[in-house]
Amino acid sequence: MTDKELFTKRMRRESRQIHNISDALINAKLGIAMSDDKVWAEGLLLFYEIFKHLETALDRLKNTTVAQLDIPGMRRTTEFEKDLTFYLGSEWRENYTTRDSVLKYISHLTEIEENKPILLVAYIYHLYMGLFAGGQILKKKRALVMKLKFSSTSDPNEGLAVVSVGPDMYKIKKKMTDAMNAIAETLDENTKDLLIKESQNVFKFNNEMVRTIKGADSVFIRKMLKTVVAVVLLASLVYYFKRSQS
């Protein structure tokens, strides 16, 4: 008799392809451009609106099954706002317009909440688990960039509140996974299938948002040009050195 597959493993398995594409896109857009504060802040701003919407939904659904995923310490709205204030100034809320891709994302989440709110758990689970896991990698890279950009007296972790979950991160992830699997045990197969579909949609919507980040491509191009120039200069030095020795 084989062990029953945990629902979180099924979610990951059946959304692996689009998940991998999403990870690659986010790493390319934010990872390669994290030396540019404007690009980094723009990425934060996009996801801030989604996380904030989900957290207000958790408040509205506090007496439902969905609230089982509201693990103490997991919420990030305050941390997003702290980072955005650091990068964009205290009046950042007044100086931006919500992107169409974000409006489309929120519209879909609103429709789910109105018609079948249990499906929101797919978004809550994947987005927070992704932030807690991938965010730690981005935090280390971003902290290194910040150290290089600021003096030794500056705090390299400033502007990184959203990915600074602390020592309880692994406990939070474990509780969230356990809660997701416990919720799945109470659901019928049709609802589980719908959750799998929404799991795939999470990454599709993420991709649509991330593709709208301005400046990331230009930062990547600048980095590539610098690399090409360095290679050309090195090759020229080697060439002239050999010529001088002949």
From TrEMBL:
Single Gene Ontology BP annotation: heme oxidation
Binding site for heme b: R12, H19, Y125
SUPFAM superfamilies on file: Heme oxygenase-like
A molecular function (GO) term: heme oxygenase (decyclizing) activity
EC number: 1.14.14.18
Catalysed reaction, written as an equation: heme b + 3 reduced [NADPH--hemoprotein reductase] + 3 O2 = biliverdin IXalpha + CO + Fe(2+) + 3 oxidized [NADPH--hemoprotein reductase] + 3 H2O + H(+)
Keywords: Heme, Iron, Membrane, Metal-binding, Transmembrane, Transmembrane helix
Similarity comment text for this entry: Belongs to the heme oxygenase family.
Name recorded for this polypeptide: Heme oxygenase
Taxonomic source organism: Armadillidium nasatum
Lineage: Eukaryota, Metazoa, Ecdysozoa, Arthropoda, Crustacea
